Amino acid sequence: MVVSTSSPLSAHPISKEDFFPEESFSSWAAYGRALRSTGARLADRLTARSLDATELHEVRARSGADMKRDLTWWDLAWFGVGAVIGAGIFVLTGQQARDAVGPAVVISYVVSGVSAMLSVFCYTEFAVEIPVAGGSFAYLRVELGDFMAFVAAGNILLEYCISGAAVARAWTSYFATLLNHHPNDFRIHAASLSADYSRLDPIAVVVIALVCAFAVLSTKGSSRFNYVLSIVHVAVILFIIVAGLTKADTANMRDFMPYGPRGIFAASAVLFFAYVGFDAVSTMAEETKNPARDIPIGLVGAMALTTALYCVLAVTLCLMQPYGSIDPDAPFSVAFADRGMDWAKYIVAFGALKGMTTVLLVSAVGQSRYLTHIARTHMMPPWLAQVHPRTGTPVNATVAMLLATAVIAFFTDLNILSNLLSISTLFIFMLVAVALLVRRYYVSGETAAADRNKLAACIAAILATSVATATYWGLNRGGWVPYVVTVSAWLAATACLWALVPQARAPKLWGVPLVPWLPSASIAINMFLLGSIDSKSFVRFGIWTAALLVYYLFVGLHASYDTAKAVAAEANAGKVENGDAKPSAPPM
């Protein structure tokens, strides 16, 4: 087997070897032998964990050309702002305030923001220690193994496709507002399709195509374009706040929590969509000049600014209009028009379009880096891992991801997208928090068996108590006694981990404070928000996860197994030393 490191867009035509170079796919007979070994191979991959050095050197080398290290904390901070502030605040705020939570939507944003900030801390430690394009996929591969990393990887890719599609459809809504039209005036109604998929959106597809073209040209160029647009966008947000508060009516806040606490958490689960995007910044660690300094400042700073702006914007909207009168498609524009400031709606729509454009751009950059690193492990075809030697960008992965995003955006309603996205995102963030606990408390070959067993028991108890709390909340049975029991058990499990299990590893450069409490809290909050999402979204999530497992068992498992064994054979032969050599495995 040969692990391909060829450059993209090279002179030779694309062949099967670009997609399936592994021994298992060399012939139908070889594939049959691989399928008969599925059980043994799966057992091997379930326990296989990568190493920091492997991800940093050997796996990264499989892209051929290196990505350019051009980014600073300034770039990352504005990438973070650009990635996050978009369709969530400008569209979902109105939907949730009107239909789910009322003026208490500001509390929903606080809950979602706390959850997101806890996840930011976990991501930051990993991104500083393992600065590669794979983001959470690479982190989970190192700490939880290949199989869990793949399950997360599939949901990461779904997350990015859905978020990009949702923002592209919201882009059409605000563009229509700017031109004094209803959003559906620019969509094609296909009456023969289901209602949730019948409003076809060609404008969303065009916007995605333009963003794709820009993303493949230059990461640094994308960064400059992003922070110019983001600065203008923040200026528009400040205008919305100041101008909106001049039309404030405190009477609109009197019925502050019409749907009760359940409405707050149900809205929080959906509004978590508004914070999606910061994880894309972690995928840019490979292109950052000084990850140890730049990533913490960029990520934490961007999330703190974003949360503050979200809360103030939500309060402003609810002060301008009674929650029952808020428009679900373009809430801020319509609020200004109803308050006699019709001219302001054009500024709002213009700012929203700018914000959504930056979200799409950062999403395009982030999702292609994820796919690149996944393909480096051969869990996806290695053709997708290739980096263009001139632009230093993963052209193949960028085009592939945005093509999938365009198809989803063309058909699917925003409400379906936001709910399904929140499930995938919360699931991944929960896994990253678990991985951080494993990283701090377990080092293979050094941690005593007794400490390893106590760690496993504590993590299992933290997960079980978090699931129990979320499940009871989702069942909506009433009563506070079960919550006292489950939350007390969660506290006890976390305290046992803190008191009884010694940390096996200290962070080298930057670390999450208050371990294990903050990662454990991240697990609990993410699980709790999952319990607030509707059942239909979980069905869709289950179908997607089942499809992932089918692909893994028939393709991804065998490709990654062959690649891992080939690299191990090279290492044993002395061809890979200190993680510096590019793998070029001999035939198996």
Automatic annotation (TrEMBL):
Family annotation (Pfam families): AA_permease_2 (PF13520), AA_permease_C (PF13906)
Subcellular location: Membrane
Xref: InterPro entries: AA/rel_permease1, CAT_C
Primary location class: membrane
Domain Cationic amino acid transporter C-terminal residues, every copy: 510-560
Transmembrane parts of this sequence: 71-92, 104-126, 202-218, 225-244, 264-285, 297-323, 343-366, 387-411, 423-443, 455-474, 480-500, 512-531, 537-555
Family label: Belongs to the amino acid-polyamine-organocation (APC) superfamily. Cationic amino acid transporter (CAT) (TC 2.A.3.3) family.
PANTHER family referenced in this protein's UniProt entry, alphabetically: CATIONIC AMINO ACID TRANSPORTER 1 (PTHR43243:SF96), INNER MEMBRANE TRANSPORTER YGJI-RELATED (PTHR43243)
Protein name per its UniProtKB record: Cationic amino acid transporter C-terminal domain-containing protein
